[in-house]
Amino acid sequence: MRSNLRPARVLSAIMLMVVVNVYVFANGAMTASKNALLGRLVTTSNRPILVNGGEAVTGSVILSGAQLATPASGSAIVQLANLGSVNIAPSSLVTVNFDATAVTVKVAAGDATVTTAEGVKGSVLDAAGNPRTVNPAAPAGGSAKNWGVAGVVVGSAAFIWAIIAWNKANDANDAAKAAQASAATLASQLAALRTCLAGQTTSPVKLCTSF
């Protein structure tokens, strides 16, 4: 028996089924994405890094459990909305895990730091899963910040003493010039006095007032 269905009607029915399936799939994916926590990657100068073995640049989506490897020429940041951020140093290999209450970074190589929002726990683990120190140890005798402040203070004091010494040198130079000018004036006055006295050979005596 020949079918009464025309090819156009069959094609329309198939297209309708495809559209319905795509809509259902897309709707389910959108619902799932709303409930999922996502991170956003930011790289140095938009240079690519490796995320789960593939290249990724600024703007790439980072899911919990992702493994990130940075090159020697650049670092990376994973921004986690409402949770915090993960800073990954150059030449590092880390795995980032996060949920609504915690952000955990496991460092296999290199270094990374975690900054979290209030109420969110952040931790950095070593390759064996043990907690590691986030910030490097400070130099002996004080933190790097204190050393920087001390350097500024010492430099400022040296500059002030240099100004004082320069002013003293100028004062001494001015005093020497004043003494020389005074001596020259006195010598001129004495010479004028000798000239005046040498001319006192006639009477009446002339009063010497030129000096």
Given the C-alpha coordinates, what overall shape results? rod-shaped
Low-confidence stretches: 18-34, 134-154
The tally of domains stands at: 2
Number of alpha- plus pi-helical segments: 2
What share of the residues lie within helices? 25-40%
Give a quick rundown of the structure.
Strand 2 and strand 3 form a beta hairpin. The protein is of the alpha+beta class.
Secondary-structure blueprint of this entry?
Layout: H1 7-35, E1 39-43, E2 49-51, E3 54-56, E4 61-62, E5 66-69, E6 76-80, E7 84-88, E8 93-98, E9 102-109, E10 112-116, E11 121-125, H2 144-198
Parallel strand pairs: 9-11
Antiparallel strand pairs: 1-4, 1-6, 2-3, 2-5, 5-8, 6-7, 7-10, 8-9
